[in-house]
């Protein structure tokens, strides 16, 4: 095993699309961790989805070896992290397992919103920051200007900034030297009781649950009896090892190292990301602190298309939760859709990715209900109730106020787009709190706005009005009282619970009309007339009608007396009346999925 002074643990953090994965590819090539034959673009991104979209969804840990100029061999444990705001929980977990971070800034785009929020995460954990300007080989690179931005942001010297290119490999040697010289080696006692932090896990259908950990103190050996601190369960370490392009088994790992453990656990509930692994015979006294709990932002119901697939869906979600600890779910039921799960996500992209992964990895086709956020309703005595779905909201006479979550949104853009971005944010009930010019060409706008307003199409619209030049990040601040109403959709007078939503009173008419006209296009005609209504309580605010499908009952009459035809038509009229009294409207699955795209 390498001595602790020769180990460096670091992660790569940046805004989305600043070239983290490409730079990681060059580091893997330079250290010969991956052979030329196996090399491919985004080498660490092993999910098809990541390659298709060109984004990193999961953090990836890998061990590399580097021979320094002094002739010593150093072990690098590197974690490549995602850049999108929806996957910031992955970043926070990676930071908890490191002593240093490479802060990547695109030399052609400069500092963006997620760069700043990831940097603050790293500073909170006292990480040593190495600033790297990436893509310096591009014609549009603004090296001096972006260097000044970095110096203002982290207070470093100009010579501390490493100029690099993930595409051509410029600056890789300087980067490797800086990792050795600037990032401190791990501190820990090899002889103390075992104390290891689980920062990630995955499910393998042959081996069970595989946990990835960072050892802070002590040593772990193959065959040791280990115990998980939070669950109190104990297991035998069937296999331990290090993470390279594949898992490499070892007999022993000591403090400062990053590795994996296989204990034969088949139940995903028995392992928790953020838990501490310790030795059963000689346990440590306390668990590792400083690991933050996930806070879901957006909630949606996920239901199987066939009710008998409910247990399979539960199984799939549990396995997915191992690999993505920011997914939160609990069972719920709906009159329209049967049994399903109420799931919490970090944002709309996260919801989309989970839906896609359920379909690809577990062959689960699902129906997703209208996404919403959590609210608090207060009764007349001032007691608060958490509202996760519109159907949880009590009768309007039973509560005095409803509070919704507010966020502080931070937008960094070019000055020419300020007007259109302000218009968009005010349309979304936002209030401008601060406007700061970072440089003459970059301005930072801070807004306070309701979280519910950014759930649907805010990010897409922001990108289109700023031609991709605006970057966006947000943080929850508090709950504030709002004039919210429950909007029900009724089919022939019957409310459909899966289509209910909570909206601000000022927008209720617009949303109601839009949903009714959308459903009119989507619902198939029946033998009877269908009334589609949007209502707030007992008040109908919008209506559309689907006329009845008329069957030609007189087709079999060739000529003959008119009274025969009239008799058949009267009989049909009576039947239609009866049908309307007892007729149920079938809502196809496509309608649920299409109504979600209402705002797009």
Structure description:
The chain has 600 residues and is an alpha+beta fold. The chain folds into 5 domains: 4-182, 3-Layer(aba) Sandwich (Rossmann fold); 195-279, Translation factors (Elongation Factor Tu (Ef-tu), domain 3, Beta Barrel); 298-370, Alpha-Beta Plaits (2-Layer Sandwich); 376-482, Alpha-Beta Plaits (2-Layer Sandwich); 486-599, Elongation factor 4, C-terminal domain (Alpha-Beta Plaits, 2-Layer Sandwich), CATH 3.30.70. The chain is built from 14 helices and 31 strands. The strands form 6 sheets. It has an 8-stranded antiparallel beta sheet with strand order 11-10-16-7-8-15-12-13, with helices on one face. The longest helix has 21 residues, at 562-582. It is globular, with a radius of gyration of 29 Å.
In short:
With 600 residues, the chain is of the alpha+beta class. 26% of the residues lie in helices and 32% in strands. It has 5 domains: 4-182, Rossmann fold; 195-279, Elongation Factor Tu (Ef-tu), domain 3, CATH 2.40.30; 298-370, Alpha-Beta Plaits, CATH 3.30.70.870; 376-482, 2-Layer Sandwich (Alpha-Beta Plaits); 486-599, Elongation factor 4, C-terminal domain (Alpha-Beta Plaits).
